[in-house]
Amino acid sequence: MFYRKAKISDVESIHGLINKYAEQGLMLARPRTMLYECLRDFTVAEDEGRLVAAGALHILWEDLAEVRALAVAPEYVGQGVGRVLVERFAQEARDLGMPKVFTLTYQPGFFEKCGFTTVDKEDLPHKVWKECINCPKFPNCDENALIMEL
Considering only CA atoms, which of 16, 25, 78, 63 is closest in space to residue 44? Predict the structure, then answer.
């Protein structure tokens, strides 16, 4: 398995992977525009040249970053690929001096196994919600909020 920062040529694969899960109600869909605008946030996993996982670490403020859009191809689920991406994001956040990272997810069990703790969404700073205005589920968010202290 090879992990690296995403490239422009990865956008279609990332888009397909994320939106395949979104169609099943397992994560939120992401438009291509968001992927292009936030491409530098993304890290991908490749197996023999094929993109098999992707996710992003998005900086929100001086003390908070978000792990978002984490998706692993179904045939790679349970093989530790997602965990390695989360560990890479946590290390990247530490390297940047971030004291904590959070995630909003429909898969809280996975993130708990990675060291995150469930919190009440209302306990997250208001700046977290600035992008939620564009979500089709706003203001009735049904994702779980989790945080990891670094």
Answer: 16
Q: Output the six-digit token pair for 75.
A: 């045939």
Q: Which amino acid is residue 123, in one-letter code?
A: D
- Here the tokens at position 8 are 């422009």
Q: For residue 67, give both structure tokens.
A: 């792990």
The Cα–Cα gap between 118 and 55 comes to 20
Residue 134 has pLDDT above 70, yes or no: no
pTM for the whole structure? 0.91
Three-state secondary-structure class, residue 3? strand
> Is the previous residue joined to 139 through a cis bond, with omega within 30 degrees of 0?
yes
Q: Is residue 53 a contact partner of residue 44, using CB atoms and an 8 Å limit? A: yes
Alpha carbon distances (Å) from 89 to 67, 93, 135, 142: 7, 6, 24, 24
Residues in Cβ contact with 4 at an 8 Å cutoff, skipping those fewer than 6 apart: 43, 44, 46
Measured distance CA(44)–CA(69) in Å, rounded: 11
